[in-house]
Every structure is written in C-alpha cells, then in structure tokens.
Amino acid sequence: MTGGIGEVGTDAPIRLVVFDFDDTLYDWIGHFVPALEAMIGTAAPLLGIDADDLRLELKAVHKRYGNTEQPFALLETDSAHRLYGERTRDEQRQALAPAFTAFDRVRADTLRLYDDVVPAFERLRDDGVSLAGYSTAPSVNLAKRIKLLDIAGFFSRIYASPFTGKPFPGPRTSSENGLEIIEMDRPKPDPDAVERITLDFGVAHSEALFVGDSVASDIAPAIAGGARAALIRRAGGSEKDWLPDLLQVSHRLAERREDAVGLSDDALGRVPTLSSLDQLWDHFTFAPAVTAGS
Predict the structure, then answer these.
(1) Strand order across the 228-232 sheet
(2) What's the pLDDT at 164?
(3) Residue 216 and residue 189: Cα distance in Å, rounded?
(4) Which three-class secondary structure state does DSSP give residue 54?
(5) CATH code of the region 5-27+112-283
(6) Would you call 200 exposed, middle or buried from its count of C-beta atoms within 10 A (0-12, 13-18, 19+)?
(7) Please, what's the largest Cα pairwise distance for the chain?
(8) Transmembrane ranges (predicted)?
(9) Which residues have C-beta within 8 Å of that of residue 108, sequence separation ≥ 6?
(10) Alpha-carbon span 73 to 115, nearest angstrom
C-alpha cells in the first residue's frame, strides 16, 4: 500500500507524528518487571505457594493469551482458581488487592519518561504538528501508563490493542484524562493501520511519520503502509538487568523481536536511526497540520 490522501511525495513535510510508547518514550522492561516482581512477592504467600511456582503459573496464563501484560493474569493462575474460583471476578481482585497494590506502587515509582520526550513533544506542538500514539499494549494497560506519565494532553488520538480475556474486574480505564483510547481491530504490526490513522487526521501517508524502537512492529508496517519512519535505539536501557526475570513469566521463549520482517535492506537503509528524539529535526522537516477549511 502506498500513496494516500493527495499522493504527496516522500520529500513532503511531516504533519503527523505517530509515536510508539514502550521503549520509545520510556523504559518498559525497567518499570514492568520490578512491578511484577513486587506483585509476585506479595501474592505468593497469599496463595500459599512459592514465588517460583507462581511465576510458572503466570507464564502459562501469558502463553495462553500471547501477552506478557495480560491484565489481571494473576486471577487466572491455577492457585487463584483453587482458592477463589467460586467468587466473582471483583471479589477475586479484592482478595488479592495487596498484590495489585504492590504492582501499582512500584510502577508509579519506576515509570519515567526519557528526558528528551517532553521537549520533543513541545517543539512539535509549537510547530503545529499533530501527535498520535500507537501501542501494542492493551488499552487498559496503556491508559494507566499515560495517566501516570501525564502526557495525555500532547496527543490528539491514541491507538492500542483491544482488551481481551475474561471480564474486567471493576471499572474499565481505557479512557483517562478525557482522552479516549481507540482499540484497533487489526493492531500492530498490521500495515493497514497507516490508512486508518492518516484518514483520521486527514493527511497523506507520506506526511505521516511513525517513530518506534522495533523494526518489525513499528518501522516495517509504516513503510509497507506508505508512511515514513524513524527508528530509535535507546542507549543504557535496563534490559540486561531485568530480562532474565521477564523470561520467567513471558509468553515468548525470548524477548527479542525479529528486526527485518518484511523489510528490504534498501528500505531499511533509508530509515534514519536515532539515539534521541531531538535528532528528528536532522532528518525531517515539519509543517502545521492542515485543518478543515484551511
């Protein structure tokens, strides 16, 4: 798929920037795994099992859903079913509330934006560029992170994966701070998202820039959809510190994404690799988004 509204060429100024979230705007593994470990450490004695056994039970739930961030996976472990299987979902959540509170506390303490994020957002906003967010995370998980980071006001729209699984225990939080998160029927890495998002904003495909840390999930779909792309590689991440713990509960055998899926060497060679978001201005020109009637 190429082209789009107006069929603007690849030297067109960028009027819409679509940002990935995890490991693009903040260190995902560096906040998620410590929070998960706090939850496990609190939940294991409540469930009467060893922490390592609980990790194995969580891994089984994550593999069933294909999602290491499956919301309230703790309620679907074998041990939780054994103790609380006759209760409602909300009653189960209340029984394990100390564990969820431990997760929330550590997440709030460790989730931080990279230093270059807010300055880049502010500069793009001053340039009149529209900002969108697009994540593989389930909407309910992403909504909480956006609230904690206080960045909802920068985005016109945010797109995420839908919540799947058993009924959500308690009120849904897919809308935070007045910003509705749009659940995509065909989420990342489907390249048709380029068509959906550019139509929502009324820009040509080539006037949209997708920024992310994964070639497979962010860059290849953007290029396949006819948009532009920038790959960001963050230095000094916490993956080496927390990856072994993540693999104990992950639905994947390894938390490594293929970096050349569906993308030729020539196409990848035209994608700039950034170490900081302020380098966007070294590779692209930006222009105000065109509003209706202008």
Answers:
(1) 175-176, 179-183, 157-161, 130-138, 16-19, 208-212, 228-232, 273-274
(2) 84
(3) 7
(4) helix
(5) 3.40.50.1000
(6) middle
(7) 64
(8) none
(9) 148
(10) 32
33 three-state secondary structure? helix
**Is 31 within 8 Å of 239 (Cβ atoms)?**
no
- DSSP conformation letters of 97-113: HHHHHHHHHHHHHH--B
Q: Which amino acid is present at 136?
A: T
- 38's enclosing H/E stretch is helix 28-47
Query: 213 and 194 in contact (C-beta within 8 Å)?
Result: no
Mean pLDDT, the chain cut into blocks of 10 residues (294 residues total): 42 94 94 94 97 95 90 95 94 96 96 97 97 93 94 96 82 56 89 95 97 92 94 73 58 47 64 95 94 45
- Write out the E strands in the chain: 16-19, 130-138, 157-161, 175-176, 179-183, 208-212, 228-232, 273-274
Distance of CA 278 to the CA centre of its chain: 21
What 3-state DSSP class applies to 19?
A: strand
